[in-house]
Amino acid sequence: MPIALTRPVSPNMAECELTHFERQPIDIALAEKQHEEYEDVLRALGCEIVHLPELEFHPDSVFVEDCAVVLEEVAIITWPGAETRRGEVHSVAEALEPYRKKIYYIEDPGVLDGGDVLVVGKQIWVGMSSRSNTAALLQMQQILAPLGYLVQGVKVKNCLHLKSAVTAVGPDTLLLNPDWIDASIFEDFNIIETHPDEPGAANALLIGEDVVYPADFPMTALRLAEAGIELFLVDNSEVIKAEGGVTCCSVVF
């Protein structure tokens, strides 16, 4: 059974870090309701939810994906690019101890957000963003090359993380915003482009053969459905205001 680590919404989520978005009011009660519904969908797709402790004074702490990269063989605990988020990683590491014998840690001067790590089979791309750097990429290559992973850095633009620009929606299919990342990097994959009026629509969470996807991007959702991809839609409005997405709110392994 897949495990999904999640964490409650902080009551201070409205004070979240923002890089590319203008700050908007966040309805905390609605965010909590949406997060519960998101967890319900994960359960419906066969995941066992493991709740991490609430971190009231970490506004971005619901975005647990940024704290860890979990592969079949090992887990890597990140060192987030935003200093205010570094206190979030410890409880994630503790939660992963029963599940992975080998746990590695990104060390300074490396900085890495899990939202910058796209894993498809044995290929891993690391976004070179404002939150992740080359020093962390080199550490990941040292850890994972002996396990047969090809780890390469890619540039992103105009967005927070790599997975703001591209995510997997199948074993050989990616959802991608061509304005935020060079699609030619992924020439071996089938590409579904986001609708041009929905630039933030590239973030999808693949679990098995099913895709959890924000109902907030209906035109891109239609493109995915027309491609034969089964979607489980969730209302993601408050997370989107905090520059987050459906991958951000869980670590599934």
In short:
Helices cover 21% and strands 25% of the residues.
Structural notes for this entry:
There is one protein chain. With 253 residues, the protein is an alpha/beta fold. It has one domain: L-arginine/glycine Amidinotransferase, Chain A (5-stranded Propeller), CATH 3.75.10.10. It contains six helices and 15 strands. The strands form five sheets. It has a three-stranded mixed sheet, with helices on one face. It has a three-stranded mixed sheet with strand order 3-4-5, covered by helices on one side. The radius of gyration is 17 Å and the shape is globular. It starts with a strand and ends with a strand. The mean pLDDT is 97.
Strand order of the largest sheet: 2-1-15
Multimeric status of the protein: single chain
Estimated share of beta-strand residues: 15-25%
Shape: globular
Unreliable stretches covering 5 or more consecutive residues: none
List the helices and strands and how they pair.
Elements: E1 3-6, H1 28-44, E2 48-51, E3 68-70, E4 74-77, H2 89-96, E5 102-105, E6 117-120, E7 123-128, H3 134-144, E8 150-155, H4 162-165, E9 166-170, E10 173-176, E11 190-193, E12 205-207, E13 210-214, H5 218-226, E14 231-234, H6 237-241, E15 251-252
Parallel strand pairs: 1-2, 4-5, 7-8, 10-11, 13-14
Antiparallel strand pairs: 1-15, 3-4, 6-7, 9-10, 12-13
Describe the structure using short key phrases.
3-stranded mixed β-sheet; 21% helix; 253 residues; L-arginine/glycine Amidinotransferase, Chain A; alpha/beta; 6 helices
